[in-house]
Write a structure and sequence with these properties.
The chain is α+β, with helices and mostly antiparallel strands. The chain contains 11 helices and 11 strands. A hairpin with a 5-residue loop joins strand 2 and strand 3. The N and C termini lie far apart (49 Å). The structure holds 2-acetamido-2-deoxy-1-O-phosphono-alpha-D-glucopyranose and magnesium ion.
């Protein structure tokens, strides 16, 4: 229990949560938002839990636009789930409005809070014990993308401009090396050089987009394994969460980022990089699940670049961690001083392993694609 951070009485008032407050917990997850679960008991003794989240306005600078995206997308998914006979309380997040009808509560300290339904009888995974879990995660993300295939994309705001623009990520990285604000560049020469050697990869997908070979879609843009909720009983992925970065993007961003996180044999912040590798079995499971759900809506160019996108998204993330380390840890939450450097090293080690396995990864995709 963590009562110091959350002014739960005001929150309960603002969102008109009914019943008696029984407690709240800090949910440890994510590098960006702070999330709490708040428990309320009604007069019949029924306990309802809510998810209360403080929006990180350093990262998401326009909370109105951000919430407009999320309300739009979650309402759309909700309608889809209802039409298809599913359970809208479990298969999507839903935004609770405040008494004034706003999708967030702005407190006296200018902090923005939002309230979602809490999806009970579910769990998240940080790592994978059973490859089936990853297959199910792939289906969940593929399904999410497919549901949103006809969403009016022009109504979506770009919540973080150039979020997966690998060229602009590279420029930010080069700038951070040049500035060397904290005098850390000298200690990470090998990492910097490794990244520079791969600069030529940065514009590959963006060029295919410019040529019209890759389409813009509604994408999640943060498809970490821990952004899927799994059902305690069936172990199916029931709901995709962490919707702040739902924006127009490339399907390959979502595929590649999932592989980066979930098919790594080590944690994102494993200190022993010798434990880092790309698990080909997990890669196959994910590709199977994803193509099974979303494959029919993908074009050849998207399918041809699935393996490359895994490398590129891993490289992008490594560069982002390294940039943040050089800038003095301004962006990602860290638990110890060199946390971003440790994360950088796992990502770069994974890039190196993906490069060694790229041919095998491509064979896997072709094999699955032939059977579709
Ligand atoms: C952040 O919030 P979280 O932990 O799901 C980040 C992602 C990174 C990820 C690295 C808005 O995601 O882009 O890939 O950390 N989200 C944002 O673990 O920057
Ligand atoms: Mg998350």
């Amino acid at each position: 229990m963590n009562n110091k951070d959350l002014d739960y009485e005001r929150i309960i008032d603002a969102f008109v949560l009914e019943g008696e407050y029984i407690g709240h917990d800090l949910c440890e997850n994510g590098h960006i938002n702070r999330t709490y679960s708040v428990k309320m008991k009604d007069k019949y003794g029924k306990i309802t839990e809510y998810l209360i989240q403080q929006i990180n306005t350093v990262v998401f600078k326009n909370p109105d636009e951000l919430m407009e995206n999320i309300v739009g997308v979650t309402s759309y998914i909700r309608d889809y789930v209802i039409k298809n006979g599913g359970d809208p309380e479990r298969e999507t997040l839903s935004v609770f409005s405040t008494a004034e009808g706003k999708p967030y509560y702005l407190d006296d300290n200018k902090k923005y809070w939002r309230c979602y339904n809490y999806i009970a009888n579910s769990y998240t995974c940080q790592t994978i014990d059973d490859p089936e879990v990853f297959y199910n995660a792939a289906k969940a993300f593929g399904h999410f993308q497919r549901i949103l295939a006809d969403y009016p994309i022009e109504t979506l705001h770009e919540t973080i401009p150039n979020f997966h623009n690998t060229v602009s990520r590279f420029n930010d990285f080069e700038q951070a090396v040049k500035d060397d604000k904290k005098g850390r560049a000298g200690g990470v020469k090998a990492e910097i050089e490794f990244a520079y050697e791969r600069k030529k990869d940065a514009d590959k997908l963006l060029n295919l987009l410019k040529k019209g070979r890759l389409p813009i879609r509604v994408t999640h843009n943060d498809t970490k394994l821990n952004n899927v909720l799994f059902d305690n009983d069936t172990h199916q992925g029931i709901c995709v969460v962490d919707l702040d970065t739902v924006m127009p993007g490339l399907s390959l961003y979502d595929f590649g980022d999932s592989i980066r996180f979930g098919a790594n044999t080590a944690l994102e912040d494993e200190r022993d990089v010798s434990l880092v590798s790309l698990d080909l079995e997990l890669y196959e499971q994910y590709a199977r699940g994803y193509l099974h759900e979303a494959g029919s809506s993908l074009n050849d160019c998207e399918i041809e670049n699935l393996s490359f996108s895994s490398k590129l998204m891993t490289l992008e993330c490594g560069i982002r961690f390294l940039t943040d380390y050089l800038n003095g840890d301004e962006y990602f939450n860290i638990n110890y001083p060199e946390h971003n450097l440790v994360r950088t090293r796992t990502q770069l080690a994974l890039v190196a392993d993906i490069e060694r396995k790229l041919d095998k990864m491509e064979e896997i995709v072709q094999k699955i694609n032939r059977r579709l």
